[in-house]
Amino acid sequence: MNTDTLTNEVIQLHADICLGLADPRRILMLYAVSESPRTVGDLVRELGISQPAVSRHLKILRDRGMVNASRQGANVVYNITDHRLIEALDTLRDVLRDRIVYHASLIDVSK
């Protein structure tokens, strides 16, 4: 495998993770399943999203290796696969907060 092929594969994996984070509902789901395992029904009730939509979003997260599913009796329970995803999301929130503060300071200065 040459270096260009490996670089392209890593870039594609990076893009796949970003795609998994590209919808606010999936971010909410990641936070929820990071706190404790959740079923589709749990996420429907907590997030106010339809069952088909929850299932579609979970499939995207599963396909990207961000959540895993395990059967517990009659239920399928979802867990986050790596808590560093939450650390990354928290870091992005910090960046966003700093940008908001910066833009707010520009508005205050221009008065």
Give the topology, please:
Blueprint: H1 3-20, H2 24-35, E1 38-39, H3 40-47, H4 51-63, E2 67-72, E3 75-80, H5 84-109
Antiparallel strand pairs: 1-3, 2-3
What are the key terms here?
single chain, 111 residues, alpha+beta
Low-confidence stretches: none
Radius of gyration: 18 Å
What general form does the structure show?
Answer: flat
Quaternary state reads single chain
What is the H-and-E element order? HHEHHEEH
The CATH topology corresponds to Arc Repressor Mutant, subunit A
Overall pLDDT: 93
| N- and C-termini, Cα separation | 59 Å
Derived structural class: alpha+beta
Number of helices: 5
Strand order of the largest sheet: 1-3-2
Task: Tell me the number of strands.
Answer: 3
Proportion of helical residues: 55-70%
- Going by CATH, the architecture would be Orthogonal Bundle
Question: What does this molecule look like?
Answer:
Helix content is 69%, strand content 13%. It is α+β, with helices and mostly antiparallel strands and 111 residues long. It has one domain (3-81): Orthogonal Bundle (Arc Repressor Mutant, subunit A), CATH 1.10.10. Strands 1-3-2 form a 3-stranded antiparallel beta sheet. A hairpin with a 2-residue loop joins strand 2 and strand 3 (75-80). The longest helix has 26 residues, at 84-109. The chain is flat.
Task: Give a brief outline of the structure.
The protein is an alpha+beta fold and 111 residues long. It is 69% helix and 13% strand. Strands 1-3-2 form a 3-stranded antiparallel beta sheet.
